[in-house]
Amino acid sequence: MHRVEHISRRIRTERPAGRPVEVPLWEQWAQQSAALPQGERLQKVLAIRGWGSRRVCEEIIAAGRVTVNGEVAVLGRRVDTETDLVELDGVPIGLRPGLVYYLLNKPTGVITTASDPQGRPTVIDRVPAEPRVYPVGRLDVDTEGLLLLTNDGDLAQRLTHPSHGVDKEYLVEVDGGSVAQGALRRLREGIELDDGFTAPAKVSQPSPGVLRVTIHEGRNRQVRRMCEAIGHPVTRLIRVRIGTLHDRTLRPGDWRELLPEELNALIESVGSHTTRAGVAPVDS
């Protein structure tokens, strides 16, 4: 009897020479799981960051609009928010912890730079010191209005790159009284400056001597030079909109963080924006 049990045990444990030992199924599952991307589920991450309910985020993923490290994501994909690059419609959506987005209403007399050797006040002085942020684009010292500051370099690059042509809208007070229709038409169709013709602009005159101008280029002091070219020098210039961003209640010198829906709308606008010709991004 003992002899039979011993032979049976040998039959169960010995295998023919050259035949690989089978790995237990549970161990195979563990190996496969370890090989898959780790982290949080993509739809959960998108929902937490304000892209909609999980069901909406699942629909966005299923539509093929989301990529992770350049590959189209599938439902159930997990992501590491520290290292993975997640893009929606080709635009990075900023999953990395610590990214901040400030909207500042810049007053006159403040320099749009990180530091000033002459010791003048800068836009960086107006927002929290940590984490370190940088202005997206530029407003000259005499120009007021909305300015975005962030440490999200990917989004900043897209917002300022000429190919995306993000609209900037200005409220402009000019000298010389009411602007004639012919002059307004010149502004709308494109006007010759010392660095070439401007692209067509949206221009209206809500009241005599007050213009509302929307441009998508970023030439140095562009709006001021456009108005000078028609004989109406600027006396006051306020930027009231950057792409989808606007806020009539933000007082000069004040700042606030972007709301999730504002950030998402801004990201989507540069992702789906029709490419337009432009020049180096330096505003007004």
Brief synopsis:
The chain contains 8 helices and 16 strands. The protein has 284 residues and is α+β, with helices and mostly antiparallel strands. It folds into 2 domains: 40-92, RNA-binding S4 domain (Structural Genomics Hypothetical 15.5 Kd Protein In mrcA-pckA Intergenic Region, Chain A, Roll), CATH 3.10.290.10; 101-272, 2-Layer Sandwich (Pseudouridine synthase), CATH 3.30.2350.10.
Set out the fold topology.
Layout: H1 2-13, H2 25-35, E1 40-41, H3 42-48, H4 54-62, E2 66-68, E3 71-72, E4 78-79, E5 86-88, E6 91-92, E7 101-106, E8 134-136, E9 144-150, H5 153-160, E10 168-174, H6 181-189, E11 192-193, E12 196-197, E13 202-207, E14 210-215, H7 222-229, E15 234-242, E16 255-257, H8 260-272
Parallel strand pairs: 9-15
Antiparallel strand pairs: 1-4, 2-3, 2-5, 5-6, 7-9, 7-16, 8-9, 10-14, 10-15, 11-12, 13-14
